[in-house]
């Protein structure tokens, strides 16, 4: 009996321990967000399968408001719910979205063990863990020659009329003048085939959609699952608390001639590339977090709404974990958008200047790189001996006139000797903490702060220096480079107090030398007297000079690659180059992610995020002029007419790792070249490709299972190209050329007259090129096939570059970049 009781007690204890272990296991298994793609046609393409029609590039999808579409959408949603209820434990998951418009699938917040069950469920094609997502003007219209293009479109009051540009980003500030309606020039009341709506919420009333903004939605289920949102800035509405979304939208489609005033100083007037285009907003990024799931839900909705162009100045943090780059869920959604007739413009990323840094991979999107223009904002530090040292900083002069000089103090010499604070660089030399400096010493002085540990590791910032300057009454500040860390990158930022950054160590040494010559010290090294003098000159006046365009240092570089191992593939990325460095555009005064810009309506920002909407706006102008053109035709028009030369007649240069270092750029830096809007409006010839071509491209990739392609895209491998390089792009890229190969291209004459073209070649080193036919005559809307024969004459260890030039008798010129890696003679 005792033995039986003991057995019962042990059994009870075992059950309790087992329950405890299971509970601990459940607690330890953290949830994550997963994207699941299902078999079955989404709403936009459902009618095509049933009717037997082929997918179209013209956006002629099903009516989302029809009863048939609504019924099919409900069927898809119900099937997602049923799968989750059947496969997963109750309470173990939260469905975030049902994707139903251009892709059939859903996003779910659950644990890895539950995801394994989903993978085994019938009808499931792909399961991918959410990779998170991140955010990737007064002068550029003139720099790009857009006023002449606007004249062709009926002037700035009509440029872009009738087109809708969608922005998946951080939202928009509806009160900004760049997005205000114009009662003297009202928009047309109807937009055919567009069905967006305006969602209201905090700081975004229903009246925010004013004709200029025609639709505004927000997507937050993924963000709310990923983290606890901050109610003071993560507004559950389309309102932009960060500034990025407003900046991007105004570059593409901001109103014409909006005055740019920052801290009371007038910098000029801002205009979007297509100032009469409409704006559709899809907020999917929040100041606290951005997740890919919300971005995909936004894309799914934007395509159904009927935008003409989709702007993605955002993207995943990294390539897909277990798939080739072309078959990640983000790429599949963009392929579906292209299939629906939407031109997708995508930032290539800010990971430059190293190679293999692009995050835009697929041939069905336009990947945009960033360039510098010839505009800069030079600042000057004037020393007491008359020496002038150049620097960076958008600030007024230290005396109002830039002539009166003030006492020059090194922050390290003004530190309170017996102060109760840590003796670290942030306190001693970086001007981060007012309590560390002697007010009597720094009051009314120009103070030298040093770029040291805190700036190097990201814990120090300019906002803190400005605060210190205000609290202690600096006349101005100078942030100098530190020889221990070398030169640093400085971008012009509006300072609310006089200030300048000196990013070069050579210039910092000149300042240090002058300062020490003018400073008396005792035997302990303590300062006895300060005799150095300095003034900060006017830094807000623009200078337009120098070489431009140049590929910006941060702009990501190719070659494009197919997987995480970065094996190159036969697609040129970036596709094209556009201004992305120091771009004035709209900003949100809340500026939740950048306190230095808080309270401002405009900001001067750099990134491929800024280059991307330049291309979106120009694409809208082309779409307005050619409403029946497909996405690939618009992309081709911009590529073949782009220029690879700068304003000095040389091939475009690129910035390297070192400050002021320039080297001759190549297609892996600038794609086809720098966009030329006026020529893009009338390209003569275009290269056209559609959904079936992209499936054939995928099916021709080596070592890729056709079943995987069909699983990911729904497209069967009924045909494939001889090689991936046969995809009809406006470029030719071959990653491993052995012996000889023939690739094929097809051009269409989109001009109004017949034209004769002569084919010229600048061959890459190590390759001989022959084109057949060497010349051709093509009628309006006529098609001409080209054979491009490549023969290796010298094996190389790296890519070499050239181009094909098709010169027309009516002055049309089409350029085709060549990027070839010749590996062997046979």
UniProtKB/TrEMBL annotation:
InterPro entries documented for this protein: Peptidase_S8/S53_dom, Peptidase_S8/S53_dom_sf, Peptidase_S8_Asp-AS, Peptidase_S8_His-AS, Peptidase_S8_Ser-AS, Peptidase_S8_subtilisin-rel, Peptidases_S8_3, S8pro/Inhibitor_I9
Record-given protein name: Subtilisin-like protease SBT2.4
Domain of life: Eukaryota
Alphabetical UniProt keywords: Glycoprotein, Hydrolase, Protease, Serine protease, Signal
Region feature (Disordered): 47-71
Pfam families: fn3_6, Inhibitor_I9, Peptidase_S8
UniProt similarity note: Belongs to the peptidase S8 family.
UniProt GO BP: proteolysis
PROSITE patterns linked to this entry: SUBTILASE, SUBTILASE_ASP, SUBTILASE_HIS, SUBTILASE_SER
Entry GO CC: extracellular region
Xref: CDD domains: PA_subtilisin_like, Peptidases_S8_3
Active site, per annotation: 169, 244, 609
Domain Subtilisin-like protease fibronectin type-III, residue spans: 726-820
Signal peptide (residue range): 1-23
Inhibitor I9 domain segment(s): 34-135
Localization (cell): Secreted
Residue span(s) of domain Peptidase S8/S53: 160-648
Keyword check for Ligase: no
PANTHER family linked: PROPROTEIN CONVERTASE SUBTILISIN/KEXIN
GO MF terms held by the record: serine-type endopeptidase activity
């Amino acid at each position: 009996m005792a033995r039986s009781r003991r057995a019962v007690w042990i059994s009870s204890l075992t059950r309790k321990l087992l329950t405890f272990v299971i509970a601990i296991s459940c607690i330890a298994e953290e949830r994550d967000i997963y994207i699941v793609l299902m078999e079955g046609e989404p709403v936009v393409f459902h009618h095509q399968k049933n009717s037997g029609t082929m997918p179209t590039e013209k956006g002629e999808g099903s009516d989302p408001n029809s009863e048939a579409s609504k019924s099919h959408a409900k069927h898809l949603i119900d099937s997602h719910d049923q799968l989750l209820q059947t496969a997963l434990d109750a309470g173990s998951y939260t469905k975030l979205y049902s994707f139903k418009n251009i892709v059939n699938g859903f996003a779910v917040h659950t644990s890895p063990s539950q995801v394994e069950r989903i993978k085994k469920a019938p009808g499931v094609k792909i399961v991918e863990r959410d990779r998170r997502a991140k955010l990737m003007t007064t002068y550029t219209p003139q720099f790009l020659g857009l006023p002449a293009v606007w004249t062709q479109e009926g002037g700035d009051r009509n440029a872009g009329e009738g087109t809708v540009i969608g922005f998946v980003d951080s939202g928009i500030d509806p009160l900004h003048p760049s997005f205000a309606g114009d009662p003297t020039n009202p928009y047309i009341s109807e937009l055919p085939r567009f069905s967006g709506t305006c969602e209201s919420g905090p700081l975004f009333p229903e009246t925010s959609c004013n004709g200029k903004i025609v639709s505004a939605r927000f997507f937050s289920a993924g963000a709310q699952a990923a983290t606890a949102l901050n109610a003071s800035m993560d507004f559950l509405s389309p309102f932009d608390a960060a500034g990025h979304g407003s900046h991007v939208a105004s570059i593409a489609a901001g109103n014409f001639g909006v005055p740019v005033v920052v801290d009371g100083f007038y910098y000029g007037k801002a205009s979007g590339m297509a100032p009469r285009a409409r704006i559709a907003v899809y907020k999917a990024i929040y100041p606290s977090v951005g997740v890919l799931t919300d971005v995909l839900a936004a894309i799914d909705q934007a395509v159904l709404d009927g935008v003409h162009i989709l702007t993605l100045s955002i993207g995943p943090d990294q390539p897909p974990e277990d798939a080739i780059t072309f078959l990640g869920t983000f790429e599949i959604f963009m392929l579906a958008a292209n299939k629906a007739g939407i031109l997708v413009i995508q930032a290539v990323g800010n990971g430059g200047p190293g190679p293999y840094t692009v995050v835009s991979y697929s041939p069905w999107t336009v990947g945009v790189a960033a360039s510098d223009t010839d505009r800069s904002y030079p600042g000057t530090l004037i020393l007491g001996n008359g020496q002038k040292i150049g620097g960076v900083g958008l600030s007024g002069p230290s005396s109002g006139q830039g002539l009166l000089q003030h006492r020059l103090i090194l922050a390290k010499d003004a530190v309170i000797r017996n102060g109760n604070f840590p003796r670290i660089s942030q306190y001693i030399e970086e001007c981060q903490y007012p309590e560390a400096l002697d007010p009597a010493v720094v009051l009314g002085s120009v103070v030298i702060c040093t770029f040291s540990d805190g700036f190097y590791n990201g814990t120090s910032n300019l906002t803190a220096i400005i605060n210190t300057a205000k609290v202690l009454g600096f006349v101005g500040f100078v942030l100098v480079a530190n020889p221990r860390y070398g030169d640093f990158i400085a971008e012009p930022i509006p300072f609310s107090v006089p200030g300048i950054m000196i990013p070069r160590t050579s210039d910092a040494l000149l300042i240090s030398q002058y300062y020490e010559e003018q400073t008396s010290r005792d035997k302990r090294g303590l300062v006895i007297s300060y005799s150095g003098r300095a003034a900060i000159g006017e830094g807000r006046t623009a200078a337009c000079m120098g070489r431009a365009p140049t590929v910006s240092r941060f702009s990501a570089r190719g070659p494009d690659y197919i997987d995480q191992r970065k094996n190159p593939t036969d697609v040129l990325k970036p596709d094209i180059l556009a201004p992305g460095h120091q771009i004035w555009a709209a900003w949100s005064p809340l500026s939740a992610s950048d306190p230095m810009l808080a309270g401002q309506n405009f900001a001067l920002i750099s990134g491929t995020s800024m280059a991307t909407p330049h291309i979106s706006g120009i694409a809208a102008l082309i779409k307005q002029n050619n409403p029946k053109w497909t996405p690939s035709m618009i992309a081709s028009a911009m590529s073949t007419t782009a220029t690879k030369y700068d304003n000095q007649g040389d091939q475009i240069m690129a910035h390297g790792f070192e400050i002021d270092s320039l080297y001759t750029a190549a297609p892996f830096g600038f794609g086809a070249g720098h966009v030329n809007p006026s020529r893009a409006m009338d390209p003569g010839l275009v290269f056209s490709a559609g959904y079936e071509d992209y499936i054939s491209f995928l099916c021709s990739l080596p070592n890729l299972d056709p079943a995987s392609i069909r699983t990911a895209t729904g497209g069967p491998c009924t045909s494939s190209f001889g090689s991936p390089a046969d995809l009809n792009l406006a470029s030719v890229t071959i990653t491993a050329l052995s012996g000889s190969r023939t690739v094929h291209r097809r051009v269409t004459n989109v001009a109004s007259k017949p034209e004769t073209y002569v084919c010229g070649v600048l061959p890459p080193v190590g390759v001989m090129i022959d084109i057949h036919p060497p010349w051709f005559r093509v009628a309006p809307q006529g098609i001409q096939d080209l054979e491009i024969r490549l023969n290796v004459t010298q094996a190389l260890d790296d890519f070499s570059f050239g181009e094909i030039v098709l010169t027309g008798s009516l002055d049309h010129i089409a350029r085709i970049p060549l990027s070839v890696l010749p590996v062997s003679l046979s």
